[in-house]
Amino acid sequence: MTPSEFGTLDPRIPVVAVDVTVFTLLGSELRVLLVRVKKRPYTGVWALPGGIICSDESLEEAAYRELAEKTGLKSVYLEQLFTFGDVNRDKTRRAISTVYFALVNAEGLELKTTEKYAGIGWFPVKKLLRLAYDHAKVIRYAVKRLRWKLEYTNVAWSLLPRAFTLTELQTAYESILGKKLDKRNFRKKILSLRLLTPAGKMKHSAAHRPAELYRFKTRKPIIVKVL
Amino acid sequence: MTPSEFGTLDPRIPVVAVDVTVFTLLGSELRVLLVRVKKRPYTGVWALPGGIICSDESLEEAAYRELAEKTGLKSVYLEQLFTFGDVNRDKTRRAISTVYFALVNAEGLELKTTEKYAGIGWFPVKKLLRLAYDHAKVIRYAVKRLRWKLEYTNVAWSLLPRAFTLTELQTAYESILGKKLDKRNFRKKILSLRLLTPAGKMKHSAAHRPAELYRFKTRKPIIVKVL
DNA sequence: ACAAAAGTGTTGTTACTACACCCATGG
DNA sequence: CCATGGGTGTAGTAACAACACTTTTGT
């Protein structure tokens, strides 16, 4: 059974959807993945990627499917964020949407879209245009959760390339948390957590001293007080 | 439209339910509210209270309705916990269930049940019997969240009577976290947070020095590192 | 040689842990 | 008067915040 077979019934009967908020860093700016809707009444408006679940997949599988369709990525950090179920969040029918939350390294990543959408792109989280449904609210909530996650877990690995410098890591933290951090204290704290291991290489990027590259020892999500 | 009008369709079409994990302290033991199912194939088995949502209520309203039906309580602490959507979690049909999480003071509270159930009661969270659906898993997850909430927020007020002694508060923490706490450090920390205000009364409970009664200054949920 | 980012320590302050005795009451 | 839980302080330790200069490289 395909998604399109649902949703043709009584508009008061709830339909179950999954949406995904995918975040990445581009030019040390936090961005979210949006798609351009074709269907009325939101034609031309941008929204989070998502859709009705299929009858033979779990919610999480639906979220992974959505993510893979748009980004081609399979093994990324993904977790359930919240389920939005207000009566009039979708003007056309009763829709319950479980929103997932993904973090991605966009380096060399090609976005693809399906017939369903008229476009796809990364949008800065600051000053977002008007979005369809209640998606503006959803993104605000997701950003809050992302900030919390950065401070209390090791998920930052999912935003960065495999190997990265401590300054890159610090910049990621700074641009998402929206505040400057002390270089010495940051490095001391991060290294003392023993989450990182030197990659054994240097990054030579310009006319200045090269930086040591590090990797996360594990890419399993764990809870640690980082800051 | 009433809930019973749903669920008569194709069993592969997802139906949206809300379940509630209601916790309380009875005899300084953590307990959860369970109801006894009548319907096959879970006849006689205990489960979390819950049901299909109505077409004109939000998820949260459905959770409040469920809670009020069973406990008569209206203004309690309630928040969304998680949405469970595995394909075979309900043997009879595809059911997506958003689970809410409530904390209640059970003092002088009368449990009521509806036609739908064969019984209702408070069950110790330790050594639970077999439960219907995936509700054992749901409760384990909810207990984890409860422990986190106690350590990082002020929600403890919702488990206690309006006025309580510091020892009662400490006992609540100890029985939920499952460990002893140091009396002096606990009191020092709690009072330094300035969440409590003396109720101006004493609790005379037996042949020993009476204890000062306190109240929470606010019953709005806030995030504070308590322990 | 200079511009530009990498890298590195110390000190003061604050929060946390561990620990033992006297107090007020009811029976 | 005694059994019971209520109430209190201190000292050592660990985590955190604030702060500026030297090193290494490419051009």
Structural descriptors:
homodimer; DNA-binding; alpha+beta; 227 residues; 23% helix; elongated; seven-stranded mixed sheet; three-stranded antiparallel sheet
Please tell me about this protein's structure.
The structure is a homodimer of 227-residue chains. The longest helix of chain A is centred in the middle third of the chain and has 18 residues, at 135-152. The N and C termini of chain A lie far apart (47 Å). The first copy, chain A, contains 4 helices and 10 strands. The radius of gyration of chain A is 19 Å and the shape is elongated. Helices cover 23% and strands 30% of the residues of chain A. In chain A, strands 1, 2, 3, 4, 5, 6 and 7 form a 7-stranded mixed beta sheet that branches. In chain A, strands 8-10-9 form a 3-stranded antiparallel beta sheet. The first copy, chain A, has 227 residues and is of the alpha+beta class. The A-B interface holds A 1, 6, 9, 12-14, 16, 53, 55-60, 80, 82-83, 85-87, 94, 96, 98 and B 1, 6, 9, 12-14, 16, 53, 55-60, 80, 82-83, 85-87, 94, 96, 98. The first copy, chain A, binds a DNA duplex (27 and 27 nucleotides) through α4.
